[in-house]
Amino acid sequence: MSTREHDQYRDNLAAWLLGALPPLEEELFERHLAGCDVCQREAARLRPAVGALGAAVPEVEPPADVKANLMATVRQEAKARERARPARRRSLIALRPATAMTAVTAVLAVGVLIGVAAT
Amino acid sequence: MRLRGLGGLADEELIERVAAGDARAFEAVYDRHSRAAYSLAYRIAGNPVVAEDVVQEAFLSLWRASERYRPERGSLRSWLLSVVHNRAIDQVRRSLVHDRRRADGEGIEERREAPERTDVEVLRRDEARAIRSALDRLPPDQVRVIELSYFGGFTHTQIAEMLEMPLGTVKGRMRLGLEKMRDGIEEAA
Hints:
The structure holds two protein chains of two kinds. Chain A is mainly alpha-helical. Helix content of chain A is 84%, strand content 0%.
């Protein structure tokens, strides 16, 4: 890639970090970025400034029902995950004696075969 | 463990518990970061309903796929704010709100100021003040293009048209503005 071509991409770096590139240019820039160490370093250097912008807005308290709705969904999903967990544990426990019995049977069978072969 | 105790844990510890399905740990994460998330969503969308949707979606994605957050790439707050930013900008670009709203923060006046609660919150507010002052030190023409893009969701070509200036000038101001912001934050740190 020529220096001029690289410089053209580099000119788009700040706009890319700010999310201000139109879709096609964004795609082209990201393709360039993936293979360009210079632009990657530059992006890493400037990224904290963009991150800071998000934290610089005046704070506004979210309405209480946002948390209430969110937590209702989260608690419901947590319970569903919890219900799924003991079922798996139970099935593992249920499997264990059966697995042990299979192993004992196999050992006995091998022993019997060895005994038969020896006699 | 009581929620009070969970509130004292670092984000990294909380997120491990969230990954294990601990709803109380998730609640502690929400309590810690929801104001920053909602404030940014509201600043971008200029509409409380859209801001609420964006915040709910962002936190639900954290609950359902917490492995998407990689601690080695930055703080949980930065990650959450970038998720909120992307979703809010998507919403704004998709909706008519984009045409009606202003990029200068009009509409914020009815906000409810959040009470300062803990030392951690006070520190975060100090940090936000330092960042705002870094932004305040930029020349107005650089602040304008940065605000229109980051908070307004406008592309560089749209900004060039709106402000009737060459595209190269817009790109240059974005770059200079970010450079100065970064230097200002470093000085404040």
